[in-house]
Amino acid sequence: MLGRLFASVIKEFRLFMRDPRVRAMLFGIPVMQVTIFGLAATLEVRHINVAIINDDAGRWSREMVSRVSAASFVNELVYLDNMAEFTDRLERRKVLLGLHFPADFSRDVAAGNPAHLQVIIDGRRANAGQVTLSYLTAIALELGLELARLDPQFVEPPGAPVRHWFNPNLDYRWFMVPNLAASLSMIIALMITSLSISRERELGTFDQLLVSPSTPLEIIVSKTIPALLAGGLVGMIIVAIAVFAFGIPFYGSLLLLFGAMFPFVLSVVGVGLVISSLANTQQQAVLGIFLALTPLIMISGFATPVENMPLFLQYLAQASPLKHFLIIVQGSFLKSMPAADVWSNVWPMLIIAAVTLTTATVFVQRRLQ
User: How far from 357 is each of 56, 188, 220, 326, CA to CA, in Å?
Assistant: First the structure.
């Protein structure tokens, strides 16, 4: 059995390593993707145009405008005379938002009364608009604190110092790039295994398995080991890029992270083998990859917190191996995640792997009969 298994594993390695396109997919594309996503996938807002409609000619509206102009996220201030001009600019996406100062803005500030400023945001770009609004709110709060220190008639607004643990500067790359280590290794392992059996059906080599002494379990194991090693290797490469290229701190244990990576890839390999055993052609396998990949990522917490989802989706997310491994990756990078917490997310992935690999073995056995 060991001799047959070793020969089958060597055959699988040769199948996907002799094709230069497959080698590029395994190692070149993940490096390119993590570089592009790490630089481009960010919620930070830069180089925006802000419209100014100032009906107030006083000191404090000019002071507020000058502070907004000096902010690093602003590309250009567009001074407009009325709301009709602003509406036209907003519809043509020439500005992201507008600041409308009423005629009594400076008078209210000088009198110590609450001064109101209208902010109009392009709802088509809701995320960027909300982030920019938080920037503007910080500028207004800073101006209010300075007024409170300079003039006793101003009541200093209550405040509390804010400290962000694990990511003090709220650098979005610290969140995104570690997540890519999990998602890209999942994609690679899923693609390799999903195309393995269906590729052999198209090439006609699957018929040889019908007359070979290999058992369904040996076939599954022989297709699992190469994908397991490839997915783990891709994950390790991306972790190295995150630490050395992007400078993301790593506070956890590499041993625990890499130890958890292989149960994760194993569970993904099981999903891929189920898809491959059901597909008759590689085209069907590719469609199956997209069918499985999108929900696995969407309910994993990659982009939005699982806690914000409906309750039934939160339960369904427990069946996504990516959800459990993202917790381990984020905890390993940004804090020293203890072994007990790592294990609490590893054992669900082992259950998923056992279920999917058993299902794939049953399907392959039916095909061989």
Answer: 70, 17, 8, 22
Domains of the chain by residue range: 2-41+172-368, 48-150
Closest CA to 109 of 71, 77, 68, 151: 151
Percent of the chain with pLDDT over 90: 8
Whole-number pLDDT of residue 160:
44
pLDDT, one tens digit per residue, over 212-224 is 676 777 777 877 8
Summarised one tens digit per residue, pLDDT across range 144-199 is 777 777 665 555 444 445 555 666 666 777 878 888 888 888 888 888 888 777 77
CA distance 288 to 137: 46
CA distance 277 to 274: 5
pTM (2 decimals)? 0.71
Instruction: Give me the residue label for tokens 């390993």.
Output: 332
3-class secondary structure for the chain? CHHHHHHHHHHHHHHHHCCHHHHHHHHHHHHHHHHHHHHHCCCCCCCEEEEEEECCCCHHHHHHHHHHHHCCCEEEEEEECCHHHHHHHHHCCCCCEEEEECCCHHHHHHHCCCCCCEEEECHHHHHHHHHHHHHHHHHHHHHHHHHHHHCCCCCCCCCCCCCCCCCCCCCCHHHHHHHHHHHHHHHHHHHHHHHHHHHHHHHCCHHHHHHCCCCHHHHHHHHHHHHHHHHHHHHHHHHHHHHHCCCCCCCCCHHHHHHHHHHHHHHHHHHHHHHHHHCCCHHHHHHHHHHHHHHHHHCCCCCCCHHHCCHHHHHHHCCCHHHHHHHHHHHHHHCCCCHHHHHHHHHHHHHHHHHHHHHHHHHHHHHHC
Q: What is the pLDDT of residues 272-316, one digit of tens each?
A: 888 888 887 878 888 888 888 888 888 888 877 788 788 888 899
CATH class of the 48-150 domain in this structure: alpha beta
